Amino acid sequence: MFYIRSTFIALVVILFLIPVTSKAQNFTPLTETSFKISANGGLFTPVRTKMADIYGITFSAGGSIEYRISNKLYLGFFGGYVKLDKGDLYIKYRNIYFGPMVSYLIREGEGLSIYSQLGIGFNLRRIQAYSHEDSYIQKDMGPSLNLALGADYTIVGPVFIGGKVAFDYIYDSNPDQGDFGNTGGFNFLFNAGIGL
Amino acid sequence: MIKQNTLLLLLLVLLVGCSNQPTDNGMISLEEYDEGLNLKVYPVLSLQDGQIIEFSIPGGVSYTLTIMNATGYTVRIYTGTASAGITTITWDLTNNDNKGIKEGIYIYEAESGGGVKAREVFVIREDK
Fold first, then answer.
1. Do A176 and B2 make contact, defined as CB atoms within 8 angstroms?
2. How many Å apart are CA A82 and CA A187, to the nearest integer?
3. Cα–Cα dist A105/B59, whole Å
4. Which of A171, A194, A129 is nearest to B44 (CA)?
5. Is the CB of B23 less than 8 angstroms away from the CB of A89?
6. Angle between helices B2-18 and A2-24 (to 10 degrees)
């Protein structure tokens, strides 16, 4: 609850900052930069209802570095971390993912850019269950498809803030044979970064 | 001045947004866990082949026991009507296709009369 409340407050402050800062500052359009480095943080919610029941909706963070190869396209590398730990059960889910990505600029204007992203990730997943004096760790790994839609707003020089919604789908073929199985989830992320 | 304030606010937002939900790593007792529900699932910390899962619900009430893997994928479902007292189900560590499952973390969820109870379980096979 604390985390969701904090994230909501952060969203309100960011939405307030956009009109205030856009009037006061000169910004450098991202069209004039070659690299785009960003970090993000927010919420992750699994698509599978039972998985959401078990782990809840919790923490997600990540980042990316991209290089502009044309007016509309960036190539880059992304990575992130998802932590699920609802607390009703003594079980924790962790996922570290990384991989190559491509971004397509849908719109680029006065400080505002809207983009879509496609990434292929490699996922290192770890679940730990513990009860009383026992603890058990299960690990798994698999590829994922990562899709995202987001918007950035340049506020100060080359610095931008924004948000994106990302869908991750991790492929894992044998869920009842010791593997974690296919899992999907949505990331709702605040984004901040710089163009270089 | 405006720049400084903006950067400070941005830093504050990132710090607040990235702050973590406080977690309780302490153990809860079974009594706390079961409070307010008429359905009781006994903790099973590790299962050997053919061990049992027990729960108590009022007699004559239908129940569903769902065993899931650690990401919520259903591995095995048992349904029935409870007799009075403790209902006992023996899970033979197979899935719905009667294939043996592998060692790992599983979760069982018992549902009856609007009450739902879930617990985690480790499956540790003797032959490993």
1. no
2. 9
3. 62
4. A129
5. no
6. 160
Q: Which residue has the tokens 């977690």?
A: B23
| Euclidean distance between CA atoms A15 and A91, whole angstroms | 35
Question: What's the whole-model pTM score?
Answer: 0.72
pLDDT band of A177, cuts 50, 70, 90: low
In the three-class reduction of DSSP (H, G, I as helix; E, B as strand; rest coil), residue B2 is classed as helix
CA distances from B29 to A90, A183, B33, B42, B43 (A): 12, 31, 6, 12, 10
B8: which residues sit within 8 A by CB, 6+ positions away?
Answer: none
- With a cut of 70, which residues of chain B have pLDDT below it? 1-52, 124-128
Residues of A in contact with B65 (CB under 8 A): none
Rounded Cα–Cα distance for residues A4 and A108 (Å): 31
